[in-house]
Amino acid sequence: MLPAFFLRSRGMEKLYSALFSPLLERCGLTQLEADILMFLANNPEYDTARDIVEKRRLAKSHVSVGVDALAERGLLERRRQEGNRKTIHLRLTAAAAPIVEEGRAVQRRYGECLLSGFTQEERRQLARLMDRVAENVDAALAERN
């Protein structure tokens, strides 16, 4: 059961990349850069590079390079909060809005592909089960640290 799950999860990653590919090519973005934009757009309460690293489990160096590239292109800006010069908050610019809008459409299409034929109850049940899997992963990783 587990090997099939992991093989299928690789397929899900490939599908996600394939669906995003036209947007990436048209906008000259890497998948990581698109992932950063979409993370910031979909999770406004998490607005630092550290948040992206922790929540998405990405390498700090990769996120740093991606944030730099997006800032250079004017798609996001860095801001320091008054009274806290240490933490840099990230904010999408207006120039990122069309990319985010199209990215959300891709994400919806991806969800439709994955959940095609599922009833609403099956979707809710799957969400609950995947939350439990995520909790198990978090607990196992915490044990290792």
Describe what this molecule looks like in 3D.
This protein is mainly alpha-helical and 145 residues long. Helix content is 71%, strand content 10%. Strand 1 (76-81) and strand 2 form a beta hairpin. Helix 2 packs across helix 4 and helix 2 packs across helix 5.
Biggest beta sheet attributes = 2 strands, antiparallel
The ordered H/E elements are HHHHEEHH
Total helical elements? 6
Which regions are unreliable across 5 or more consecutive residues at pLDDT < 50? none
Describe the structure concisely for a colleague.
The chain is mostly helical.
Question: What labels describe this entry?
Answer:
145 residues, mainly alpha, two-stranded antiparallel ribbon, 6 helices, 2 strands, 71% helix, 10% strand, globular
How would the blueprint of this fold be written?
Elements: H1 2-27, H2 31-42, H3 49-56, H4 60-72, E1 76-81, E2 84-92, H5 97-115, H6 120-144
Antiparallel strand pairs: 1-2
